[in-house]
Amino acid sequence: MAESFVNSYKPPAPLSLVENYGPDPYDVNFVFPIHLSTLRSARVELTPFIPALHAAPFLAELIAEPALLRWMPMAFSTLPEVLTFIETFARADPNVIIFAVHDRPSRALAGIIGLLRTSAPNLCTEIGPVIIFPAYQGTYVGANAVGLILNYCLELPTASPPGLGLRRVQWTANPINAPSVRAAQRLGLKMEGTMRWAMVLPDGKEGKQPRDGDPAGRKPGRDSVLLAICADDWEAGARAEVRQRIDRE
Prior knowledge:
This protein is an alpha+beta fold. It has one domain: 3-Layer(aba) Sandwich (Aminopeptidase), CATH 3.40.630.30. It contains 6 helices and 7 strands. Strands 1-2-3-4-5-7-6 form a 7-stranded mixed beta sheet, with helices on both faces. Strand 2 and strand 3 form a beta hairpin. The radius of gyration is 19 Å and the shape is globular.
């Protein structure tokens, strides 16, 4: 057996500010088709996050209300940081997409919602991040946004409007972020357990302290509560409950 080997991995070179805005027209580079008709209710509409349109107003909301990122496993406060996040976390990875959440009555940007860890072979994905701006928290916007994502993911491709036909959609949250857990449960996601030490958090975030000598230094760690909704849940009544909640909220 050969004992010699190489590891030629090199981190990608940082992109310029212009490059981080992405190409024009913007290529979302997502593994599944984008069904805009499925991502629209009477009051909320989801469209792909396009940095040239959405990055500046998104950053303005974060600067006005830093608590929006309290439970997020990322931190940024400048436009280049936002652009780099969208480009490297989302657009460069075909298994991730970020949507802009629009309030249709006011036509305003109301937040963002994404899908990550998407697997086309395994027909599964994870909802996140979910950030709803303060003016729209406690309104119909959050429930509509998550409900639309669930409908988009779990409805069959043969439906009208079509979905992706996924078998599993999961949601993770910091265990001490009770509102996030409750929001998922209200829309039919079921608790499956807790993944310990699931994330390394940026400095300053609330989390668990690592052991001495940890490769990430003193950056805190995070457990993640795991919830999920699956295709059999959807067919057994979750579809109707989600649609009723979209209409009611």
